[in-house]
C-alpha cells in the first residue's frame, strides 16, 4: 500500500534498500537474475538494478495484479483486464484471454506452462503458446493464489476459506480455514504454507513425523468451529446471537409463544404451553427455501444489500455486500483491499453506498487516520485530496471485457414450482399424460443437488436422460408452465458437463434452444418465460463452445427478444441489456460487422429511452462505446445521431451514465 519495494538482508533482518517509483500499491515482485521486477495497480512493470530503476513500461491498460518469472527467462503478468501477458524484455510475445474476471495469482508449472488464479473462481494451466491445458473449478469464490510443486501437485487459496490441492486437474483435498486464504505456497519438501485472514500462518504436511502436537491441532479445530459458528444462520438469525438453554428458565407470556434457543451447533424452537406452564420443543430451525428471497446472499452469507459495482476501466462487475448496521467507511476499506483496488476510490465507494441505501450522511471524526494510507477519513461534502487520486484513463467504462452471467438461483423454489405444475397437470384428465412420475421428480432433485454443489463442478456429471427429460418438458408442457424448466436450464448451461450435453441437442437438426426461443417469443405477455429465456442466452456466453451458435443465430435471437427493452419489468429490461452487452463483446471479438450493426441498433434503442432503468441504459451505453471503439460500426453510430445520445447521457444525474456518456462523446470527436 505504501508503493515501496523493500530489499532485506535475510541474515540480519535489516532493510538494505527502498525502491521508490510506483504511483499506487504494489501487487507483486519477481527476481530476474540480479534484477528485481515489480508490478502495480498503476498498470506498470518496473525493473530495478542495484537500487535504481532501469526500466518502466505500461504492461496492461488495467491494474496488474501479479508477475512471475518463468524458468525459460520470460516474465508473465496477470491483470484486472482478465488477461495474462508473456514478456521478453518489453516485448509482449502473447496475450492469454479466457478468464472472465481479474487474474489475481500466477505460478510457473515446470515443463508445462503457467498457472493462473482468478476472481472468476477458476484456476487455469496454460501452455506458453496460449492454449488452456486444464481448467480447475471448485472454489466458490475469488481465488487469490496458486502454486505448483515438482511432484505435479497444485495448491490454491481462496476467499471461500479453503486451500485446495489439485492433481491432474482434479481437487483431491480441501483444507478448511477460519478465514479467507490470502496465499498458499509449496515448500521444497512438499509441505504447504497458508496465510489466512485470521492473522495466522499455518504449515501443512503429509508426513506423519512432522504433524503438529495435539494441542496445536486442537487449537486449530477450535478456531475453525468458532469461525463456522459465527457464520451459521438459522431462520435468518446468526446462531451465535441466539440465547442458550438458560433462556427456557423464563416463563412465557402467552399460549403458543415461540422462542428459538441455541443447542450445540443448532437452533431449536420451543412453544410455551400456558396450561402446563412449560416450554414444549417444536424442532430444529432451518433456513427455508424462500429465505434467500428476502435478503441477498453472497458467498453463503446474507446481507441487506449486494450491489453490482462497475468500476469501469474495462473491468468486470464486482459484488459489494453491505448491511445497514455497518460503517460504510469500514466497508469501503475492506472491499477495496479485497478487490485490490486503489484506496483513492474510497470516496466514490462510500458515496455509492450512502446513495443506494438511502442513508443520510452522518458526521465522522475527521481526526481518524486511515491505517493504510495515513490520511484523514473522507467526509462527504468536503473536498477530497486530489493529489492522492490517480490520473484517469482516457475512457472510464469502455471497452467492456468479459461476459456477464446470471448465476444465482432459488433451486428449492424452482423444484417446488415444477412439482406444483406437474400436480396441476395430473388432476386434469386431458393433461395427465404430461405430468411427472415420482421417479422423474426424484431425477430433477438429483440434477438440482449437482447444481447446488458448485465445489465439484469439475468432477460432477449429469446423466443424458436427465437433460432429455428437461428438454421434453420444454417441448410438451403448456407455455405458461415452462418458465421454471427454463430457469433450471439457465443454471445447467453454467455447469461444464451440463453445457456439453445440451450442446448435442443444439447442434442437431432440432435445435432445442432456437425452438425454445421461438416458442417463448410467440407470446410476449408471459414475462417469466421471456425473463428466464433471455438469461439462458446470457449465460451461454460464459462457455466458448456456444460462441459459434450465438454468432450464427444472433439476428434471430435479437429479433425474438426485441420487444423486451420496452417492458415495464425492470428485471426483463436489465436481462435484455445484459444480453446485448454480451453480444457486443462477442461480436467485437469475432469481427462480425453485420452482427455488430444489429447489436448497435438494439443498444441505441435502449440508450435513447430515458425512462428505462438506469442499469439497463448503462449496459447499453457501454455496448455502444465498446462497439464504436472497435471501429467497424462507428460510422453507423454517428449516422444514428449517437452524439445527441452521448450528450443526454453526459447530463444524467447518475454518475456512471454521465461517465460513459463522456466516453462516447470523446469517441465521436476522435478521427
How is this fold's topology laid out?
Blueprint: E1 5-8, E2 15-19, E3 26-32, E4 35-40, E5 44-49, E6 52-58, E7 64-69, E8 75-79, E9 83-88, E10 91-97, E11 103-109, E12 113-118, E13 122-126, E14 132-137, E15 143-148, E16 154-158, E17 162-167, E18 170-176, E19 181-186, E20 192-196, E21 201-204, H1 214-231, E22 233-234, E23 237-238, E24 258-263, E25 266-273, E26 278-285, H2 291-294, E27 297-298, E28 301-302, E29 305-309, E30 318-322, H3 328-339, H4 346-357, H5 411-427, H6 438-452, H7 464-476, H8 483-492, H9 496-507, H10 512-521, H11 527-540, H12 547-552, H13 554-560, H14 570-590, H15 593-608, H16 614-630, H17 634-639, H18 642-650, H19 655-669
Antiparallel strand pairs: 1-2, 3-4, 4-5, 5-6, 7-8, 8-9, 9-10, 11-12, 12-13, 13-14, 15-16, 16-17, 17-18, 19-20, 20-21, 22-23, 24-25, 25-26, 27-28, 29-30
Helix pairs in contact: 3-4, 5-6, 5-8, 8-11, 11-14, 14-15, 14-16, 15-16, 16-19, 18-19
If you had to describe this structure to a student in words, what would you say it looks like?
The protein has 19 helices and 30 strands. The chain has 671 residues and is α+β, with helices and mostly antiparallel strands. The strands form ten sheets. Strands 3-4-5-6 form a four-stranded antiparallel β-sheet, with no helix packed on it. A four-stranded antiparallel β-sheet has the order 7-8-9-10, with no helix packed on it. A four-stranded antiparallel β-sheet has the order 11-12-13-14, with no helix packed on it. It starts with a strand and ends with a helix.
Amino acid at each position: 500500500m505504501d508503493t515501496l519495494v523493500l530489499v532485506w538482508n535475510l541474515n540480519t533482518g535489516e532493510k538494505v534498500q527502498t525502491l521508490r517509483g510506483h504511483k499506487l500499491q504494489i501487487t507483486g515482485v519477481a527476481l530476474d537474475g540480479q534484477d528485481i521486477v515489480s508490478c502495480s495497480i498503476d498498470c506498470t512493470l518496473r525493473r530495478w538494478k542495484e537500487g535504481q530503476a532501469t526500466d518502466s513500461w505500461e504492461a496492461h491498460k488495467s491494474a496488474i495484479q501479479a508477475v512471475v518469472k518463468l524458468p525459460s527467462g520470460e516474465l508473465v503478468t496477470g491483470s484486472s483486464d482478465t488477461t495474462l501477458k508473456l514478456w521478453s524484455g518489453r516485448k509482449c510475445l502473447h496475450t492469454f484471454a479466457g478468464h472472465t474476471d481479474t487474474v489475481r495469482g500466477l505460478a510457473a508449472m515446470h515443463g508445462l506452462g503457467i498457472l493462473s488464479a482468478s476472481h472468476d473462481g477458476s484456476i487455469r494451466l496454460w501452455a506458453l503458446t496460449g492454449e488452456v491445458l486444464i481448467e480447475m473449478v471448485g472454489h466458490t469464490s475469488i481465488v487469490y493464489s496458486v502454486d505448483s510443486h515438482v511432484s505435479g501437485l497444485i495448491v490454491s487459496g481462496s476467499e471461500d476459506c479453503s486451500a485446495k490441492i489439485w492433481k491432474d486437474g482434479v481437487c483431491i483435498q480441501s483444507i478448511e480455514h477460519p478465514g479467507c486464504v490470502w496465499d498458499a505456497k509449496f515448500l521444497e519438501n512438499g509441505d504447504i504454507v497458508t496465510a489466512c485472514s485470521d492473522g495466522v500462518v499455518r504449515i501443512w504436511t503429509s508426513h506423519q513425523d512432522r504433524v503438529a502436537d495435539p494441542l496445536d491441532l486442537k487449537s486449530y479445530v477450535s478456531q475453525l468451529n468458532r469461525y463456522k459458528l459465527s457464520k451459521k444462520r438459522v431462520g435468518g438469525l446468526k446462531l451465535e446471537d441466539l440465547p442458550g438453554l438458560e433462556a427456557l428458565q423464563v416463563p412465557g407470556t402467552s399460549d403458543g409463544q415461540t422462542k428459538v434457543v441455541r443447542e450445540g451447533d443448532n437452533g431449536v424452537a420451543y412453544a410455551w404451553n400456558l396450561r402446563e406452564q412449560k416450554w414444549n420443543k417444536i424442532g430444529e430451525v432451518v433456513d427455508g427455501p424462500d429465505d434467500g428471497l428476502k435478503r441477498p446472499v453472497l458467498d453463503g452469507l446474507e446481507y441487506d444489500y449486494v450491489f453490482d459495482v462497475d468500476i469501469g476501466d474495462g473491468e468486470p462487475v464486482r459484488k459489494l455486500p453491505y448491511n445497514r448496521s455497518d460503517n460504510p467507511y469500514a466497508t469501503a476499506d475492506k472491499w477495496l483491499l479485497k478487490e485490490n483496488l486503489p484506496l483513492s476510490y474510497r470516496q466514490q465507494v462510500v458515496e455509492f453506498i450512502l446513495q443506494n441505501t438511502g442513508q443520510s450522511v452522518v458526521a465522522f471524526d475527521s481526526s481518524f487516520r486511515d491505517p493504510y494510507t495515513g490520511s484523514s477519513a473522507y467526509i462527504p461534502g468536503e473536498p477530497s485530496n486530489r493529489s492522492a487520486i490517480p490520473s484517469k484513463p482516457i475512457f472510464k467504462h469502455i471497452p467492456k471485457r468479459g461476459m456477464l452471467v446470471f448465476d444465482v438461483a432459488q433451486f428449492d423454489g424452482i423444484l417446488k414450482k415444477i412439482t406444483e405444475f406437474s400436480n396441476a397437470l395430473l388432476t386434469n384428465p386431458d393433461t395427465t399424460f404430461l405430468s411427472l412420475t415420482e421417479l422423474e421428480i426424484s431425477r430433477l432433485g438429483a440434477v438440482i443437488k449437482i447444481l447446488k454443489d458448485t465445489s465439484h463442478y469439475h468432477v460432477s456429471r449429469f446423466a443424458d436422460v436427465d437433460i432429455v427429460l428437461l428438454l421434453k418438458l420444454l417441448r410438451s408442457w403448456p407455455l405458461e408452465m415452462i418458465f421454471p424448466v427454463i430457469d433450471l436450464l439457465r443454471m445447467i448451461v453454467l455447469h461444464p458437463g451440463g453445457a456439453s450435453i445440451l450442446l448435442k441437442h443444439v447442434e442437431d437438426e432440432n435445435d432445442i434452444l432456437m425452438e425454445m426461443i421461438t416458442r417463448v417469443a410467440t407470446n410476449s405477455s408471459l414475462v417469466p418465460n421471456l425473463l428466464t429465456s433471455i438469461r439462458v442466452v446470457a449465460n451461454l456466453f460464459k462457455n466458448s463452445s456456444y460462441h459459434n451458435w450465438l454468432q450464427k443465430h444472433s439476428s434471430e435471437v435479437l429479433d425474438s427478444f426485441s420487444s423486451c427493452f420496452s417492458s415495464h419489468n425492470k428485471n426483463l429490461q436489465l436481462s435484455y441489456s445484459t444480453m446485448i452487452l454480451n453480444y457486443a463483446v462477442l461480436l467485437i471479438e469475432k469481427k462480425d460487422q453485420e452482427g455488430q450493426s444489429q447489436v448497435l441498433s438494439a443498444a441505441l434503442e435502449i440508450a435513447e429511452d430515458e425512462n428505462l432503468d438506469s442499469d439497463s441504459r448503462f449496459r447499453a451505453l457501454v455496448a455502444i462505446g465498446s462497439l464504436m471503439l472497435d471501429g467497424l460500426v462507428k460510422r453507423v453510430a454517428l449516422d444514428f445521431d449517437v452524439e445527441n445520445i452521448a450528450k443526454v447521457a453526459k447530463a444524467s444525474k447518475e454518475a456512471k451514465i454521465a461517465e460513459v456518456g463522456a466516453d462516447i462523446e470523446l469517441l465521436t470527436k476522435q478521427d
